[in-house]
Structure formats: C-alpha cells, structure tokens
Amino acid sequence: MHFLKGLSPRTIGIVAAVITVGIWAAFIVIARASAQGTLTPFDIALARIFGASVVLLPLGWWLVRRDRAQGVAAASSFFGLSPLALRVTALCGVFGGFGYALLAYAGFFYAPAAHASVLMPGSLPLWTTLLAALILHTRITPARAIGLACIVGGGLLVGGASLLSAFEGGDVWKGDLLFMSAALSWSAYSVLARHYGLDAVRATTAVTVFALFSYVPFYFLLQGFDVIQSRLLVAPLGEVLFQVVFQGVGSVVISGMTFVRMIQYFGPVRSTMITALVPGLSALGAVVFLDEPLHWNLLAGLVLVTVGITFGVRKTP
What we know:
The protein is mainly alpha-helical. It is 75% helix and 0% strand. The protein has one domain. The protein is built from twelve helices and no strands.
C-alpha cells in the first residue's frame, strides 16, 4: 500500500473502495464459473490460502523481525509469522479467513452467481450494522434503518422463492443460506478489525497465517477419513494456478488490504454499504460471461439492495 502515500485519507479510502468492489464483483463471477470446473470448494479454499501464504508469510516474518530490531514492543504469534497477538490472530482468522471462504465457495455449488451477487454483499451491511451496534455501540440512524429494510426486502426477493423450494426438494436454498452465512462471517471480521484498530497489512497477514495453520491440517484430516475427496491431482494445472493467483493474491492479499484501509476511513458499516456496486456489477457479469438469466425478482432485488445501501452509506449526522 506504499503507492498510496502522499494521498489524502479521503482519496485513499475511495481508491481502496474501488479496488475492493472490483475484485469482489469478479470474485462472485469467477467463483460461480469455478463451480463448473474440476476443483471442489475445499480445493479452491486450499488454493486460496496457499496463494496468499506465498506472499504474506514472508511479509509477516519480516514485519515481526523488523519490529524486534527497532525495539518495538509489538505482539506476534504462530512462530513469529503473524504480526498480531494470538487472540486477535485467531479471532480474525476464524471469521475473515477460511470460514468466509468455505461458506462462500460451498454456496456456489447450489445457487447461481446472481443470488450471490445480492445475498453476500446485500446482507453484509445488515450483519455489520447489527454487530457494530452490539460490539462498537454504533448508533442505527433512521436513514440507515430504512436502508437496511430495503436490503432485507431485496434479499427476500432473491432468496425467498428458493427457500420455499426446500419443501419441494430443491437445493438452491442451501446456497442462499451459505451466502448469507459467509456475509455474517466477513461482517464479524470487519467489526473486529475496527474494534482492534488493525493495520491493513498486519490484519490480512494474520488472517492468512491462521488459515494456513488451521485449515490445511483440517483439509488433510477430512481426506484421511474419506469425508472429502480432493481433485487437486486430477485438475488441469492451469485451473489450479489460476485459483492460486486470483483467489490467493487477488481476493486475499489485494482486496483484503484495501478492505481494511476502507474500514479505517469509512468505518465498518459505511464500508460494507459501499458494496452497493457489487450486486449490479457481479449480476451483469454473470449474465454476460456465464449466460445466467436475470429474472424480474433478481432485478427487483438488485434495485432494492442498491437503494438500501445508498441510504445507509450516508454520513451519520
């Protein structure tokens, strides 16, 4: 993030928001396309963590040793690879690391990208507002309450029919619930990042370190007990490398850091509400690149969610 030095805090916040929204929109479309490929959600999560670890583990090791060399009494954990204390690393890692990734990737195997484009970024402000009110004691203004009502209405338009399909044996409702659970997990991470006043680089590094030490053993343990089947060895090398680069470097390293920088300027609630652009961009991308239909309820849901986030992103008087 050194290229942002010299810019005003507002400019840095806006640049971070643009980068985050762009990667998040691409993430939804690419993750849906990946569900049609060879790799399982567990494989993709492993590729995501590995790609991020290649970049961030050496960075974490360097940050810890630089702090020590400068005589800074900074906390560290996980053999000096995480530049944050064990408790903070674990809390952020559980919610912002493999928990979010697994829930989101699993959802794409049941529901289309158009659903994810509304339910994940759409429910994110709702969860974040509630958690921020509970943990940070952030006031819910009337305008923000109206915005949240619109967001909930948009989510019901998108996921309501599929939830009803549970009684008919449909599986789309499972994906919708997974998407909303992924949003809840990420909301918890965003509130924790603000609560602890975390630096963007250190927070993203700590999350990745925790995910590596917790998810990788879990992944191989499930394989050993035949709970899951890995397809890494049979997947095309190009598919695996793409997931490592985009999911690991793009979705974790780059957007992870820009998201925390956005939180530093806008705060967790307004930051998640800036994701108003994500539903439209990702739904449009799914229509253009994946040939997915955009039904009237999805379109209406997009409009309601976008209106709701527009209300909520305004500054609190």
